[in-house]
Amino acid sequence: MTKPGLIPATFASANANTSLCHLSGTAAPLHLLHHEASMTATGSTDSTPPKATPPTVMPPKVTPPKSTVGDSDSSAPKRLGLRIEQAKWECGLPDGARRLVASRDFEGRTNGALVRWLSADRDLAKRLLRWCNTPLYNLSTPFKNLEEASRVMENRDLARLAVLAWVRTLFLPDVRFDIYSRDFLWAHSIAVGSVASMITRTCGVGDSSNALVAGTLHDIGLCASERLDPETFQRIIREIDQLNPKQEIESEVQGWDHTQLGAAVLNHWGMPQDIVAAARYHHDPEACEDPSVRPIVASVALANYFCTRAGLGSTGSTHSVAPPPVTFEWLSVKGSLLEVLWKQVPSSIQNARDLR
After folding, report:
1. Are 138 and 179 in contact (CB under 8 A)?
2. Peptide bond preceding 142: is omega within 30 degrees of 0, i.e. cis?
3. CB burial of residue 53 (10 Å; 0-12, 13-18, 19+)
């Protein structure tokens, strides 16, 4: 029996398996990471071109709500505020999850709120039981029901796994256009969660359970942006290339990026502050001023880089700027430990395949 913390996941395509095979047995990306980490201060980055094949299926036509704000109120902060308010209504936690977080059962106090929630949502209960019976949580006789699983798994892990099982529904049904896919974004998110959890355990810093949740939710702002305003989101996706990262395009087009929206959504959900901070700073760890959350922010930033270089980027690209040197400092990563982490990436990503 193993209880590594919650690591829900899915792999979206054969490209992910191909990337894993390519990743295993080669140290080239590791050497590149050494180079990129040392060159971050001068702005040098890798120029490996993305190899994603743009899907051709277009999403259904969705008309975003019309803003009631006039031209005089069209500043970026106010427009971001409107989008956050929209997200609170359209991407809010269900009542059962809100009660679970508010009652501190999310931190493992009891399973009372969780049991009440699941009793009212049979589909979620079925998904959660299926996830509990993956090799991540059960290597012996399958659990027959959630009551049996709760006697083996820690309250905290089961509660967090249930919340992530619900979050999975925000990525359904799959929507594809250009280089974007909800399924692939979920595969990326869950892989980052698995790798971030591995990094904190290996480095002995931070909370590996929080790292897994933080990694899985780090791009929730992308999912929310696509659901709330698909027309603008498609425009952003089409303009992404190696010289124009998505967060820069987002800022140019709408005045904010997915890290700001994602952090606001998670804060509204009542997530712990290190999970909120990981969503806000995973592209800019140096901007994180709170020392107490830096290990989780660093683990997610590094995991995001590792997964992207392994072929599991949020939009299918393998191009990614290496995290700044402070990321490695906060994780106490030096020399051989970096190689140890890199060698564990394939298995950590593989472990994330069975939860979908």
Report:
1. no
2. no
3. exposed
- Asked if residues 87 and 102 have their Cβ atoms less than 8 Å apart, the reply is no
Question: What type of residue sits at position 119?
Answer: S
Tokens describing residue 204? 């002995």
| pLDDT digits 0-9 by tens, 61-108 | 444 444 433 343 458 899 999 999 999 999 999 998 988 888 888 888
pLDDT averaged over the chain? 82
